[in-house]
Amino acid sequence: MAAATGTVDLAVQTRGLAVAYRKEPVLEGIDLDLPRGTLVGLVGPNGAGKSTLLKALLGLVPLRSGWVRLLGQRGAEARRRVGYVPQRESVDWDFPATVLDVVLMGRYGRIGLFRRPSRHDREAAWQALEQVGMAPYAHRQISQLSGGQQQRVFLARALAQDAALYLMDEPLAGVDAATETAIITLLQELRAAGKTVLVVHHDLNTVEAFFDWLVLLHRRVVAAGPTAEVFTPKHLQAAYGGRLLSLPAPVGSEASAPSGVRL
Amino acid sequence: MTWEALILLLNSPNARWVLAGSLLLGAGCGLLGTFALLRRRSLMGDVLAHAALPGVALGFWVTGAKSVAPLLVGSLVTGLLGAAAVDGITRHSRIKEETAQALVLSVSYGMGVVLLTVLARTGLGGQSGLNRFLIGQAASLVRSDVLVIGGAALAVTLGVLLFFKELKLLAFDPEFGAGLGLPMALMDRLLMGLVVAAVAVGLQAVGVVLVAALLITPAAAARFWTERLERMAILSAAFGGLAGVAGALISLSRPQLPTGPLVVLVATGLLLISMAFGSSRGLVVQRVRQAGIRRRGLAGGTPVRWEGEAS
Fold first, then answer.
1. For residue B38, which residues of chain A lie inside 8 Å, CB to CB?
2. pLDDT band at B76 (very low <50, low <70, confident <90, very high)
3. Distance from CA of A250 to the nearest CA of B (A)
4. What is the distance between the alpha carbons of residues B65 and B72, in angstroms, rounded to a whole number?
5. Contact present, B244 and B218 (Cβ < 8 Å)
6. Which of A171, A181, B20, B292 shows its CA 20 to 30 Å from the CA of A147?
7. pLDDT higher than 50, residue A258
8. Percent of chain B scored above 90 by pLDDT?
């Protein structure tokens, strides 16, 4: 059972994962091994398949081939312990609901059919709101929130799940500098608590500061590993090609670059 | 209508059954319509109503009976087929959803009218039968019909209440729901199935052309009064029930007036009142709010700042 014990330490494991939309290949031959307790950045050009990879891990899009193991398990059982933060533009914020209503949705997987949220579920939702600093807005209409506040509500909804692995689709897109710092601090706290966080990210300037692991994606995995090993001009050129106009200046030499820079 | 006439009407057992049926139907459709509207499936009600019409004709033809039960079964069958057709066309061809809806709606309606006309010519149904299904005639319902309609309306209501939080998630963020491991695809089918059932029942009372209004108008009206889904659902059910009862009452007292249009006119009246005076999104409230903002010099609000994409 050497193979089985090997996977226990992995938060995400895929082999030969491929996804196609209408016969157009989006992802091909994805082999990933992401260790537990890491803060992982998922980076690549537009159309690289970053969001699709998250959805494939969650089973939201059909796989053409390959398999996924999350937290050492396959299928629906693992998914209950995975928190998902979709892009905030993916929903209609004009929906009749309050902030607390939306955060409570994170508990729906645990509540079970035909039942209403319990006091314990409400407490978990309030706690999640405290964590993202949105508790004062609990009874606010979601249509009245700013972009950064919407993002924090989605984060709180995932936190309310009390998951072991979090998959986040551009949680830092369109938020102001203060919110960005607050969110990154929160993600680092999750890592400190032993959780694994996989974050789709678009800002190459902050990659080295934020993430201790990095996955460079362009339909295939261009490179994956500790940030210092992956975040090199050679790999970035391979992922972005001519689209990357100015490469971020590397910090020190590749070998001496610190892995897991703290803010 | 005078009070005496109203009391006389309510003394008739049949009238009371018709009113009770219209109330249950209106309330059930209003409740369900909340989710159809928020899931952006407003048009599907209309499509499924037309898809149910051939089923009505077939049910009539096979059993030769005018009672509601076989017609209901027929309309359920072709309604579900219509829903499956829209789904299949959208998924397996390059035709977009609204085109598929238009196709299924018109084809079903054509088939239904041809079938009902043939039936009328052969003397099985009589011309009045066709009209009844197109614009509805609740006053012609008898007690056994109303029991079937009321039972089905209650079943739809129960279905919505049992799966309330799953339907809420389906309407707001189905991908997140699926990520939680909840059967969102199944919930989507359930919602469509409930709409098929509501429409099949509703068209017996208000007719094919107008049943979609019974589903959507109360929900659209309710949205102007609240920003909470739970309150919107209750209010929508209340508006639907009110429109059903008021429409049926007018139709019963003036038998030459068809029920469907009356119910829909009452519901539309409620919608217009809500658009103007709704306490949350009504025009008056919005004007007052805007005036207040202008006075305090805060017009516009703060725009969301977007960062450039790394590309």
1. 95-96
2. very high
3. 17
4. 12
5. no
6. B292
7. no
8. 54
Substitution target in A85, A113, A145, A165 with the highest count of B β-carbons within 10 Å is A113
Residue B15 CA to residue B142 CA, distance in Å, equals 9
**Chain position carrying tokens 């996989």:** A198
How many C-beta atoms lie closer than 10 Å to residue B297's C-beta? 7
Same domain membership, residue A88 and residue A106: yes
Domain-embedded: residue A199: yes
Number of Cβ atoms within 10 Å of the Cβ of B229: 22
Structure tokens at A130: 């405290």
The per-residue DSSP string of B221-261 comes to: HHTTT-S-HHHHHHHHHHHHHHHHHHHHHHHHHSTTS-HHH
Do B311 and A46 make contact, defined as CB atoms within 8 angstroms? yes
Report residue B78 as tokens.
């072709």
Nearest residue to B72 (alpha-carbon basis) of B162, B153, B127:
B153
Whether the CB of B175 is below 8 Å from some CB of chain A: the reply is yes
Number of domains chain A contains: 2
Cβ neighbours, 10 Å, residue A81: 16
| Residue A217 belongs to domain with CATH number | 3.40.50.300
Half-sphere exposure of B230 (CA within 13 A, CB side): 4
Is A5 found in the same domain as A62?
yes
Mean pLDDT check: name the lowest of A12-16, A196-200, A255-259.
A255-259
Whole-angstrom Cα distance, residue B76 to residue B48? 9
Would A184 be classed as within a structural domain?
Answer: no
Closest CA to B205 of B134, B266, B255, B273: B134
Pairing of β A10-21 and β A165-169: unpaired
The residues in A 67-86 lying below 8 A from B, measured between CB atoms, are 76, 79-80, 82, 84, 86
Q: What is the pLDDT of residue A132?
A: 94
B309 neighbors A202 (Cβ within 8 angstroms): yes
CA distance linking residue B218 with residue B271, whole number of Å? 7
CB atoms within 10 A of CB B88: 12
Q: Tell me how far apart the alpha carbons of residues B9 and B163 are, in angstroms, rounded to a whole number.
A: 38
Q: Quote ipTM for the complex.
A: 0.87
Residues A72 and A170 in one domain: yes
Spatial contact of B26 and B243, defined as CB atoms under 8 Å apart: yes
Phi, psi of B35 (to 5 degrees): -80, -35
In this structure, is residue A188 part of a structural domain?
no
Shared domain for A70 and A88, answered yes or no, is: no
Under 8 Å between Cβ of B173 and A90: yes
Q: Are residues A39 and A58 in the same domain?
A: yes
First to last CA, chain B: 71
Q: Which CATH architecture has domain B3-295?
A: Orthogonal Bundle (1.10)
Residues 6+ apart with CB under 8 A from B98: B43
Pairing of strands A10-21, A65-70: antiparallel
Residue among B275, B276, B214, B222 nearest B246 (CA): B214
